Amino acid sequence: MSKRFDVIVIGAGPGGYVAAIRAAQLGLQVACIDGWQNAQGDPAPGGTCTNVGCIPSKALLQSSEYFELAGKHFAEHGIDTGGVQMDLARMLARKDTVVRQNNEGILHLFKKNKVRFLHGHGAFVQAVEGGHEIRVSGAAAQETLIGAQIIVATGSSARALPGTPFDEKRVLSNDGALRIGAVPKRLGLIGAGVIGLEMGSIWRRLGAQVTLLEALPTFLGSVDEQIAREARKAFDKQGLRIELGVRIGAIESGKKGLHLAYTDARGEAQALDVDQLIVSIGRVPNTQGLNTEAVGLQLDERGAIVVDADCRTNRPGVWAVGDVVRGPMLAHKAEEEGVAVAERIAGQRGHVNFHTIPWVLYTHPEIAWVGRTEQQLRADGVPYRAGSFPFLANGRARALGDTGGMVKMLADAATDEILGVHIVGPQASELIAEAVVAMEFKASSEDIARICHAHPSLSEATKEAALAVDKRALNF
Prior knowledge:
alpha/beta, FAD/NAD(P)-binding domain, 5-stranded parallel β-sheet, 13 helices, about 30% helix, globular, dihydrolipoyl dehydrogenase (NADH) activity, FAD
């Protein structure tokens, strides 16, 4: 007889494992199914984010930044490092350790919260009285469960170029990009978005000659134009070669690497020879293998599960969150949806505000933003005031030796409510949190301007940008 649960979560990525834990905290009997495993064959919950995305990429970004700082910038602080050597194998091993620690942490949280974890592949079997039957197949013996409520959180996978599948040796997804065994002399990336810029930054710092080819005519088109220009200047200075408006043609594999034919923004034929190629042109929802047709679960033209504003599907008692549904493919967005769904199942009022979801690029300089950009406000005809403050005039940034970039604040011209905050510069990923909190509480720029910020701190740049909205910045 199939064991019954109040909630069954399919997928243990950021959306799934958090949903399972929150549902258990609310007194529900919960099972979570996930088939991810590490190189040793052990369960590795955490999804793409923990295993081949957010966590390992940040580990390598940190290691590669330390390497570059030691080799190029420590001397400015009076630190003579001599000849800096890199041990790539140890760097990758540290990254793997960080990933494993996160895997083990999730398993510990399941145990602590009495969530039953099943290592295997979860799929729908049929609708039954009181819920849905789910089959779990994997290393262990196959079994079936019945859940009164089902939460699908199966995430997404890297999109391949048509006709050029990933082999994870020469043509790499984000997975292979994190496991390159030797620094390539020439590295190509297709796509100059978040993943492309972060992966390109890692391998450039370690010594690769990096070229990014982007189909869009503008650099970081979803970022505020002024912030994107600042970031582009920094990346150009670092040696990242970025070409926009590119159309990729044939990709040929030879003895010495890959030969890419493409046309540039002027329509002229160009070619690029690389040792390895990272493809980062977007991601596709993971719905294959879920057997959605068995229960009539509705998918859209992209293969994503169709949900309403509260993450309900067309099937009673079936919910979906994260990358497998509409909206930005961000780990923290998935987490918020997972918590909200668990609370809705328990009869509470779950909350997700899509207007205050922060975005971050963990490059150097870091780029972070929340809310609308200046170009969006202009397009929508919204009267606004803008204020900005450069890190060049911030005492903490000077002490760090990291003065590039700025904080920019946009506020409603009539009400002064903050409509967007955009940062390029040191620790932007941390600074953006203040803006998210302020916008969630519908704060005005004057509210931030009147709050005492520690001195010296990078956060003072946010206060000064708020003051600049009213043209009364004190230090610039």
